[in-house]
Write a structure and sequence with these properties.
The structure holds two protein chains of two kinds.
Chain A (H helix, E strand, L loop, with lengths): L2 H27 L12 H13 L10 E3 L1 H10 L3 E4 L3 H6 L6 E2 L5 H13 L6 E4 L7 H11 L5 E4 L2 H7 L4 E2 L5 E2 L1
Parallel strand pairs in A: 1-5, 2-3, 2-4, 4-5
Antiparallel strand pairs in A: 6-7
Chain B lengths: L4 H27 L2 H10 L5 H24 L3 H24 L16 H23 L23
Classes of the chains: A alpha/beta, B mainly alpha.
Chain lengths: 180, 161
Amino acid sequence: MKLGDIGKDFAGVVGLAILSLIIGVAVNRFSAHPLPLVHQSPSERLQGELTRLVAAPPFESFPVETIGLDEFRPVVEQKDDLIIDARSSHYYQLGHVPGAINLARDNFARDYIRLRPSLDKSKDSPIVVYCSGGDCHDSKMVAQALTSLGFSQVRVFTGGWDAWTAAGLPTESATKAANQ
Amino acid sequence: MKLSARTYYWLDIVIRLVVGAVFVTAGALKAGDTLQFGDKIASFEILPNALVNYLAMGLPIFEMLTGLLLIAGWFRRPAALGIVIVSGIFLIAIVSALARGLTIDCGCFGSGTPTRARMWMDFVRDTALFVAILYAYWNPAPSVRVESRGHAQSLSEPAAT
């Protein structure tokens, strides 16, 4: 073993290290949860999570896209989109549109945290919100809140519960028993 | 200790396979969870924060790469030296953590529960790895193939420690 040999091998090691770093950074760049380039301790990361949870963007009123019964009905029947009942849980339990989940305007934060797992899947897919109907504002406010939280395809069914039941369409109650 | 060429030939293969497999496994486990590995590196309190995640991204790849090269026998001397250096650095890091009274998980194979007893086990394992690969690196590669019938030909006895 000569020192010159070690030097040559060491140059190879440096080459391998540079190659590994390039591959590692590239893999990280395209991974689902890339690391930030500067390390954050677990407590710093938790702090970041909390900030994201608490410091939601300020609530703003802005127009939301609305749909009528003729458009809402196939959405319910196809069961592809997330349907949100924005009324209070009391009314939701008495009866709601089949498949709808309850994200009440009054209990938004609590319901939002509870429903987070299913909500997060719909960040970029269609969501329709409704409330009792007529002049109710809950559906619009919940839709605006969701939009400001980053949900990109939120619409409001303006007819609401009144229009749905007036048309004699199927409903579902808390016990999941569908009644015509 | 003087080894016969045949013994040395097989010893070299065993060291390369075992150390190579350990490094590929260790690298693969860490590559899958670089976030945790970054925390492990940070827990040694040796590197500045700015460098921690680069090491977390690069080192697992380096371990897999050198391990595979060592097993395959391509570019084997730089690969072996790379493993000597990396396992040497691990050893220093563990010794320094033991000396400073830190109780941490070495993060060598993904995550585990940090205990002092495990740290001593890590120390022993790393020492064994380090000595084995240093031995394989320091001695020249076996220069002859051992015939399958068992008698070696025109041996140049490898330097042995």
